[in-house]
Amino acid sequence: MRVILQILALVMLAPLVGSYLGRFHPLGDSLAVFRPAMALALLMLAFAFRRWWRAGLLAVALVTLVPILWMMRPAAAVDAVVTVYQKNLLFNRGDPTALIADFRASGADVILLEELSTANLPIAEAMRDSHPYQILCPAHSVGRVAILSAYPLSDEYCAEGAGFTAARVQHPAGAFTAVAIHLHWPYPFGQETQVNGAMGELAGMARPLILGGDFNMVPWAGAPGRIARATDTRIAGPIRPTLFVKGYPLPIDHVLAPNDAKVLLERRPRLGSDHYGVLARIGLVDR
Fold first, then answer.
1. How many alpha carbons fall within 13 Å on the CB side of residue 108?
2. Strand runs (DSSP E) across the chain, as ranges?
3. How is residue 91 annotated by DSSP?
4. Rounded mean pLDDT of 186-190?
5. Omega into 238 within 30° of 0, i.e. cis?
6. Domain segments of the chain as ranges
7. Which residues face 100 on adjacent strands?
8. What confidence score (pLDDT) does residue 1 get?
9. pLDDT tens for each residue of 58-91
10. In terms of pTM, does the model score above 0.90?
11. I want to staple 211 with a disulfide (CB 3.0 to 4.6 A). Which of 111, 132, 178, 256 is the partner?
């Protein structure tokens, strides 16, 4: 029995180690989605062993889980200068009345949208009284990505078919570049190719940047981190699941804010979508 348990532990360790290798192959990012589950399984399995095996497995599980739990830690309140609402609408959603009311109640300066399908276009139209400056970009097969802003936009950029759109928001507290992005699912789907294609454009955009979108990837994996490093931003927290697939929690909707800005992320209700929204309150620093 001891040998069987040891083999089982080693078999479970292999994909956990692989989940850190996304920089070498995109399969690593796909495995990273299940990193918390694998670490918890090792944590429970550790108690079937004694001494060194137990200590080793406990150490591996804790080293894996602590950074993820740190991303989920509560954050202090922020004196917000900019408020950004990120939302995957769901391309075939129903009545948007409650969602539109939540957009208005949030006080968002900028609303970043994905899956803005033909059926969802009335949502953008309904927001024109408060957010008249809009980019609706056909950047993704399941619907447009969009930026709705209460303030004028300049330097508008629509990467058709590439999954993102961007514009300079002329905010009273200082201009910033807003990016709405929708990534494909990870390996074996097209996320890596899409990210590689977008990196040059994103890295060259005027600072500071605020990005929001459905990244279809957990924040501790490679793709969101690569984009954050290229844009001088960090993934805002606290992290919470924004999509449940067969009950499995996935924090895949993110807002990325400037490295030196204080940010508080709040999860908003699903309101007819399969994704929760996220509202980022950002205290931009003087520049």
1. 29
2. 82-88, 110-116, 133-137, 144-149, 153-159, 164-169, 176-182, 209-214, 233-235, 243-245, 248-250, 253-258, 262-268, 277-283
3. T
4. 92
5. yes
6. 2-71, 82-283
7. none
8. 67
9. 999 999 999 999 999 998 889 999 999 999 999 9
10. yes
11. 256
